[in-house]
Amino acid sequence: MVFMLSLASNNANHLPRKMRKIKHKLESLKGYIFITFVLPLTTYVTAAFWTIFFLNKDFVPSATFALMPSWINHGYHTNGMILVLMDLLFENNSIPPVKSALFGITLLAIVYYSIFFGIYILFGKWLYIFFYEMT
């Protein structure tokens, strides 16, 4: 979604003059989504995966390796962060106000963990094996 907004805002220069006001709104929305949702979630997923992997490889579900080779799984959890870092370096993202960004990050955390614990409540199984060790 962020990359689609980036494409739209970069091509907004080709619009008639009266419609160029939309470029500022597209850039603000793109910056808000990127800084509030994409950057924190990608950082969390990459850091959590590699921390879990280095602490104990057995915590990564073995069913995952039956579906795909381990190098693909590692690539999924690493390439996202590489793309986000490239976007940070090469794209001019507008920084949202702190209050709205904190609200968005808080909302993201509530939704993420609600889904995470909702899976346990509905199916009686944790999403990750290491939670069985803690309960």
From TrEMBL:
One of its GO terms (cellular component) is membrane. It catalyses: 13-(9Z-octadecenoyloxy)-octadecanoate + H2O = 13-hydroxy-octadecanoate + (9Z)-octadecenoate + H(+); 12-(9Z-octadecenoyloxy)-octadecanoate + H2O = 12-hydroxyoctadecanoate + (9Z)-octadecenoate + H(+); 12-(9Z-hexadecenoyloxy)-octadecanoate + H2O = 12-hydroxyoctadecanoate + (9Z)-hexadecenoate + H(+); 9-(9Z-octadecenoyloxy)-octadecanoate + H2O = 9-hydroxy-octadecanoate + (9Z)-octadecenoate + H(+). InterPro entries: ADTRP_AIG1. It is found in: Endomembrane system. It is a multi-pass membrane protein. The chain crosses the membrane at residues 29-54, 102-123. The keyword Transmembrane helix applies. Its main location: membrane. It holds the Pfam family Far-17a_AIG1. Belongs to the AIG1 family. This is Androgen-dependent TFPI-regulating protein-like isoform X5. It comes from Agrilus planipennis (Emerald ash borer). The lineage of its organism: Eukaryota, Metazoa, Ecdysozoa, Arthropoda, Hexapoda.
